[in-house]
C-alpha cells in the first residue's frame, strides 16, 4: 500500500495567495462629519440650598421634677415645656396635714 503525500508545493502556493490577498490596499473611508451640538448660555443666579429630611428628636438631658415633701397636690403651677426659674413655686400642696401636725 502506498500512502499519497499531500503536495507541499500546492499548500505553499495556496497559503501565499491568501496572505497576498490580505495585503491588498484598503478603500479609504470618507472622513467623519462634524456632529452638530447645542449651545446654552448660562447666567449666574443665587440658588437656595435646603434639605428636607425625616428625623426624630430626643432630649439630651432629662430633669426629674418632684416635690421635697409628701402631700396631696392641689395645683400644678407651671406649664410643661416652659422655662422655670430658681425658687419658682411648682406645686401647691394641701397644707391641712401640716397644720394638724403642729
Describe the structure.
The chain has 102 residues and is α+β, with helices and mostly antiparallel strands. It has a domain of 38 residues. It has a two-stranded antiparallel sheet. The model has no long low-confidence stretch (mean pLDDT 84).
Features:
about 100 residues, alpha+beta, two-stranded antiparallel sheet, about 20% helix, rod-shaped
User: Low-confidence stretches at least 5 residues in length (pLDDT < 50)?
Assistant: none
Major sheet characteristics: 2 strands, antiparallel
Order of helices and strands: HEEH
Helix content: 10-25%
Structural class: alpha+beta
Main-sheet strand order equals: 1-2
Q: What is the approximate shape?
A: rod-shaped
Our estimate of the beta-strand percent is: 5-15%
Report how far apart the termini are. Answer: 144 Å
Number of alpha- plus pi-helical segments: 2
The total beta strand count reads 2
| Mean residue pLDDT | 84
Radius of gyration: 50 Å
Task: Describe the protein's topology.
Layout: H1 8-22, E1 73-76, E2 91-93, H2 96-101
Antiparallel strand pairs: 1-2
How would you concisely characterize the structure shown here?
The protein has 102 residues and is α+β, with helices and mostly antiparallel strands. The chain has two helices and two strands. The mean pLDDT is 84.
